[in-house]
Amino acid sequence: MTEFDPGESASIVSVTDKVRAISIGAPVSAVHFLGQTAAFVGSEENIFVVAEEGGPAAVAVHGGGILCATSDGKRLVTGGDDSKIASLDARGEVTVLATDAKRRWIDNVALHADGAFAWSAGKTAFVRGGKDQEKSLEVPSTVGGLAFAPKGLRLAVAHYNGVTLWFPNMAGQPEFLPWAGSHLAVTFSPDNKFLVTAMHEPALHGWRLSDNRHMRMTGYPGRVRSIAWSAGGKSLATSGADMVIMWPFASKDGPMGKEPAMVAPLKSRVTAVACHPDQAILVSGYEDGTVLMVRLSDGAEILVHKNGGAAIAGLAWNARGTLLAFAAEDGEAGLLTL
């Protein structure tokens, strides 16, 4: 695939004229959907919701900085430096789910399909289920990331030198998966066969959960800050380079012994990735403000947003894959109807 510079004329399909430009008016750290409504998470206090028509409406969710956010499409849960975990639903209603008793910052949040949610403060991870039963687990160092397994109530807690796998409703000792270094974002593969972390160093690390065999995924020029599973979980898209790195997970060995695919190369670092919920399509955002849509079967690219702005901070598809939202760090954003 030839390298494409959106600053020059190039033979690439463009849909920039079909994008609805939105100015949030504040820095943005993440983007999610609540039904058909795009939700742009501000770095301070507010989430800005944008319906299919109309401008952004600010919804106050925290009394300070918003440090983390996650969504299942029905609710958007955030953690802040005000020690609170808050939830925003599609109706625009905000609920404070919990407040840290020690007034610590909330560093990570995670959602489970059955309604349970998890959060972390310092070295402690918490889980609260449907009956408001709260349980906690202390790990050896500050929690770097949280993720629920797709099957069963099992929480992965990433921290320094490895990941702890915890069944909050079971009395046994949690399982520890060791690997030297600082582990940050963590994710289970959709088929529940693999666990992958993004590390503080420019690398990913993974385990095959059937036998805890290690999977090293290295070679990045920068830290991986955004990861997304493709439809069906056959590959894992990652930022961290000047192209999207796609690790193969279709076989029982995952990426072990295999080279990753590389798509959508630019003269700019990838900062965000998001995969279409049903089709072999991904969208990638770059440090120079470019947004590209890529068909994974052949690498064909569509220009969604031209370069020349701030780095792309967040990308999101709605559940049906008919709406795409993106936002740069400075709050310049867009919505594309497909």
Account of the protein in words:
The structure is a single chain. The chain is an all-beta fold and 338 residues long. The chain is built from no helices and 30 strands. It has strands at residues 13-14, 20-23, 28-34, 37-42, 44-50, 57-71, 75-80, 84-89, 94-99, 108-111, 117-121, 124-128, 134-138, 145-148, 155-166, 175-188, 194-199, 204-208, 213-217, 227-229, 235-238, 244-248, 261-263, 270-275, 281-286, 291-295, 301-305, 312-317, 323-328, 332-337. A 7-stranded antiparallel β-sheet has the order 3-4-5-6-7-8-9, with no helix packed on it. The radius of gyration is 19 Å and the shape is globular. The two termini are 25 Å apart.
Give the biggest beta sheet.
7 strands, antiparallel
Helix and strand succession?
Answer: EEEEEEEEEEEEEEEEEEEEEEEEEEEEEE
Total number of strands: 30
Alpha-carbon distance between the termini? 25 Å
- Taken from the alpha-carbon principal axes, the silhouette is globular
Helix vs. strand class: mainly beta
* Rg calc: 19 Å
Helix residue percentage = under 10%
Instruction: Estimate what percentage of residues fall within beta strands.
Output: over 45%
Strand order, main sheet: write it out: 3-4-5-6-7-8-9
- Pick out the low-confidence regions: 6-10
Overall pLDDT score: 94
H/I helix tally: 0
